[in-house]
UniProtKB/TrEMBL annotation:
Residues 117-317 form the Nucleotide-diphospho-sugar transferase domain. It comes from the Eukaryota. Pfam families: Nucleotid_trans. SUPFAM superfamilies: Nucleotide-diphospho-sugar transferases. Signal peptide: none annotated. InterPro entries: Nucl-diP-sugar_transferase (IPR005069), Nucleotide-diphossugar_trans (IPR029044), UDP-D-xylose:L-fucose_XylT (IPR052636). Belongs to the glycosyltransferase 77 family. This is Nucleotide-diphospho-sugar transferase domain-containing protein. One of its GO terms (molecular function) is glycosyltransferase activity. GO terms for cellular component: Golgi apparatus.
């Protein structure tokens, strides 16, 4: 990964039962909002909130090197229905398969501990990840998990830039576009991100898309942490992005390369892109590998483990710095 979405109340009335009990249950069920069908994704427009579970922290302040055994951020999540609904027009979107499932759960736990309380949709690209992640719904308010509508993929971590990897990541613009067409703001995040703070304060200005730049010398935007507004410019951009990907018969590259070509050619001339501050949104190279960078920058909002290659290396870094939460 380079830069890289039910709960159902069931009740049984045995024989005659009590009429008042039946009326109460019917009223309770009627209060639950229906799901909006988003081109096969069945995304909830306003997610109902299960009872919060213990063991969730309020904030991840102070994120210098923390011993792996010290998960001192632990505290109860206080996300309420009102917290979830205040961002009902925004969806945090990610995808995963069983090969990156543990990294995905670690990211979800980091989001949970910030108390950002977003609506989160995870597209499970295989059945094992779907089954596992649906178990988190009761303990993570706002979380929704969906099977991929495109077709399941392999259940293992994939080699970067391999054909199977490229096929997998090239699905992401289609998921994003489905939500944008319904009028949602979409924050797409790769599963190898770690949240220290609520990032939504940085998405208040006027822009179409907000991303961070992967290179200090040239503009190479990262598709793995990007905020999309459902503007005309954004819809045109993602539609063209998807068209160019579909045009290629063989997936020689991932979605990011095509995205950056589209940006550099300025085919959507009025597209307004906000570049996220690298101090708040560093990549793995800066945070872990650049001498002195981490000590000089203590205001990280979201860390993206790009340039830490492979599942095992990412997990090792997260554990080494005390960011392994599951």
């Amino acid at each position: 990964m380079i830069c890289r979405r039910s709960h159902v109340f069931a009740f049984t009335v045995v024989f005659g039962g009590c009429l008042l009990y039946v009326v109460f249950c019917l009223e309770l069920m009627g209060n639950h909002r229906k799901l909006n069908d988003i081109d096969g994704l069945n995304l909830r427009s306003r997610l109902t909130v299960p009872r919060p579970a213990a063991g969730v922290s309020a904030s991840l302040a102070g994120h210098a090197v923390i011993p792996s055994s010290n998960n001192s951020w632990s505290a109860n999540s206080a996300c309420t229905q009102a917290d979830i609904e205040r961002r009902s027009a925004t969806v945090v979107l990610t995808t995963t398969n069983a090969g990156f499932l543990d990294v995905t759960e670690n990211m979800l736990e980091s989001i949970k501990r910030t108390r950002a309380c977003p609506n989160i949709t995870v597209i499970a690209e295989d059945e094992p990840s779907y089954q596992r992640l649906t178990q988190r719904i009761q303990s993570q308010p706002g979380l929704h998990v969906q099977r991929t509508p495109i077709g399941v993929t392999v259940s293992k971590s994939l080699k970067l830039h391999s054909r199977k990897y490229n096929r997998l990541v090239r699905r992401r613009p289609r998921y994003i576009l489905d939500l944008l067409k319904k009028g949602y703001d979409v924050l797409f995040v790769d599963s190898d991100t770690f949240w220290f703070k609520d990032p939504f304060k940085d998405f208040q200005e006027s822009f179409d898309i907000a991303m961070h730049n992967d290179d200090v010398n040239i503009t190479i935007f990262c598709a793995g942490f990007a905020y999309y507004r459902p503007t005309e410019n954004t819809l045109r951009f993602v539609t063209e992005w998807l068209r160019l990907l579909d045009k290629e018969k063989q997936p020689k590259t991932g979605d990011q390369s095509t995205m950056n070509k589209l940006i550099s050619r300025k085919l959507i001339p009025k597209l307004k892109i906000k570049t996220l501050n690298e101090t708040n949104y560093p990549d793995g190279r800066k945070y872990f590998l650049q001498a002195g960078w981490r000590e000089a920058h203590s205001d990280t909002t979201v860390l993206h483990l790009t340039f830490i290659f492979g599942h095992d290396a990412k997990v090792a870094k997260l554990k080494e710095f005390g960011f392994w939460l599951i």
